[in-house]
Amino acid sequence: MKRFILLVMAAAIAAVIAAFAIYHFTRGHLARSSSAAVAGLLPRETILLAHLPDFNQTRSQFHESDVYQIWREPAVQAFLQKPLSKKPSTGTRQTLRDFESLEVKDAFVAVTSLQNSAWKIVGGFRFKGTAAEAEKIVSGWRARFMRGAEPKRETIEFQKHQIEVQTSGVLTVSSCYDDGWFVAANDIEQLKGLLDRIDGRQKDHSATLAADETFAAAQKHMQASFAGLVFARLDRFFQELLPKVEETSEPSSSPPIYRQIRSFCGTIAFDGGKIRDVLFVGMPQLVNVGELSRTSLAGATRDAFLYTAGFLNLPAAMQTNTGSPHLPAALGQITAPLAAAGITMDDWNAAFGQEFGLIGEWPGTAHFPTLIATLPTKDLAKATQLLGTAAKADSARPWTQSDKDGVHYFSSEAGNPFLPLSPTLALSNAMLVAGLDLGTVQSAVARIGKRSSELAATETFQTAERAVPESRQAFAYLDTAFLYSRLDAAIRPMLFMSAAFVPGISEQVEMDKMPPAEAITRHLSPVIMSQRYDGDGYVSESVGPVTMYQTIAGLGAAIGAGAIAYQHQKGGGLPAFHSLRGATAPSPTQAASPSPPVANPSPSPSASAAATP
């Protein structure tokens, strides 16, 4: 009897495992099949495709994500109640409800041609229900899109389909229903081709995007199951749009990096409450010096919130003082002093290796974070001579040199008494370490010499590292919970002080309702990213409450929004744009101050149950 019970239990466990495997395989297979099916409706020369396989499933997964749980925190809702009550209503919430009621699947938009800088765009989606039911919703979208003067309407019959054409000025939109599909385009011939492929009249698979080798090569690197996909043929995009720009550029002996890029493809998915993205850039390998060693990780302590490592690809512009037309201005400011000192790329490569490391730490006793940057030393004598030459050429600040325990230090004095930073370089036969003060650099040098990392030994780091494939070209780690707790402790007092002196802040938010750090950090975890070169391009994979690239974009948006808000609070408004023909900008008192942009588009708490995305 016992043996029989064990057999039944084993069979039940096997059935559960099989069902779980089949479910996840089917989900991934359907997502890829769905993407391939959409690509099979588009012409081979398609330049850009964005695809959302299942709107309702994506929305449901987002509501289960860690970042959405922050929004649902009662303390967060209470804090946002006042600013959201001032937010003007928009049609976004209604559009989301419309998508949900239609059970939209395989929503896509694609740019099929850029000839003569005229973008030809097609799009569509599958829906549940009849065309008449869908038209009740779509007609409202069409009216909002064609807002302004009453558009000219025309109905054209094509292969037993009724194509509705609306024209308003230079804008023309053709749309049609076909067997559970709604499709639209700004060029009627593109729409007819789409209908032919949906109906099966166009059977030449080799003429579709699904048969394009570049698209297939990018697809193979993507996740099996995803919530959204973007694909772009960047080589065709650059070929069409950039020749005129390059005609005005100075000639260069080597083509710019963007000319080597063939394609871009990216997917985003929800994974156990976290967000995961996979990005692929099809191009030749830029730096081929082996795989990442991450030696600099030894310098990171338990107080590290950031660690990143990769390969430094300095431009050949360092070989001359004139720079390069393809060199970004910010990077040019860094390399210009080296070039001015007569340091060439050959000199630099002979002295230092290409793998860099960057460590951000924030001890609990410090008011501000510290940053440490590292490079491996290849030739100590050449590196010492190079840095000495660069220090003498730096007329902006004096540098002093000293030696301690076999390490040569270059130190400068603090330029601002209110911000006591004294940039320091430490050079040993193993590594160059750069930091913002002498004590921090000396501590980092000592830790790197021990070759054991406190950060790498933590369970938090190890768990995060296992969530992505092994890094070969680049690696990044950001502990968002740790960083937020430090930022909250440092910035919260300043925010309360600002509210006391700037009345406009209290009119927008109630600072006494600012949520405690624990309400946010309980839903945060490290963001991790790894990158590798996989035969035909670079593959980056990132996972966390938000991904690494979303974090970078969010920080940029927050800095921009903060600058705008600060400018508005000062009462200066935003500068007006004037003709360059001798016009001068008005003073802040003369310029009209526009209304501040709304930074948070989320609905009010009273409507959150029905209106949240």
Describe what you observe in this structure.
By secondary structure, the protein is of the alpha+beta class. The chain is 38% helix and 23% strand. It is built from 20 helices and 20 strands. It has a 20-stranded antiparallel β-sheet, with helices on both faces. α12 packs across α13. The longest helix is centred in the first third of the chain and has 38 residues, at 2-39. It is globular, with a radius of gyration of 29 Å. The model is unreliable at 1-9, 12-30, 319-333 and 572-613 (pLDDT under 50).
Structural class: alpha+beta
* End-to-end distance: 54 Å
What composes the largest sheet? 20 strands, antiparallel
Low-confidence stretches: 1-9, 12-30, 319-333, 572-613
Strand content: 15-25%
Classify the helix fraction into a percent range. 25-40%
Total count of helical runs of at least 4 residues: 20
How would you describe this structure in keywords?
single chain, 613 residues, alpha+beta, 20-stranded antiparallel beta sheet, 20 helices, 20 strands, disordered N terminus, disordered C terminus
Give a brief description.
By secondary structure, this protein is an alpha+beta fold.
Write the layout of secondary structure elements.
Elements: H1 2-39, E1 48-54, H2 55-63, H3 66-72, H4 74-85, H5 92-102, E2 105-113, E3 120-126, H6 131-145, E4 152-158, E5 161-168, E6 171-178, E7 181-185, H7 188-199, H8 213-219, E8 228-232, H9 234-241, H10 243-247, E9 263-271, E10 274-282, E11 304-311, H11 329-340, H12 345-351, E12 355-361, E13 370-376, H13 380-393, E14 399-404, E15 407-412, E16 424-427, E17 431-435, H14 438-450, H15 459-465, E18 474-479, H16 480-501, H17 503-508, H18 517-521, E19 526-533, E20 537-544, H19 548-569, H20 608-611
Antiparallel strand pairs: 1-2, 1-8, 2-3, 3-7, 4-5, 5-6, 6-7, 8-9, 9-10, 10-20, 11-12, 11-18, 12-13, 13-17, 14-15, 15-16, 16-17, 18-19, 19-20
Helix pairs in contact: 12-13
